[in-house]
Amino acid sequence: MGANGIQSFRDLDAWKVAMDLTVLAYETAKRLPQSERYQLSSQIRRAAVSVPSNIAEGQSYGSDKRYLHHLRIALGSLGELSTQMELAVRLDFVTFTDVEAMHKQLSRTRQLLFGLLRTIRRRRLAQAAKGATLLTTAFWLLQIAIAG
Fold it and tell me: For the chain, how many structural domains are there in total?
């Protein structure tokens, strides 16, 4: 494994929890009325699949900038999914009890995504600081060489 123990997206807790969330979303979508098969049900499945897919895609790029972008998309999809679940409850397609486990999984996935975002931002800041230190050192060495 890599230095931080992450070799692929499959090693990320955020991805694992998001995959479990997707399974719950599909199970919930099956319970919606037949009339919602191609509407709300489809939207629920699409938003749910988007979460682990974007985590995987972002991590696979290897670039922190693209990784952050895809994690933000995953968070947006979580917002969509949360809204769709609330709408399903408000329309009496499912009960809150039916989606209680999903709400817990949504919350857990959101926590892990925010933690991952924080980690990547800290890593970028540390790299930027290291780069600034190297530039400053190079500047002063050049000044010494010119003066000397």
Answer: 1
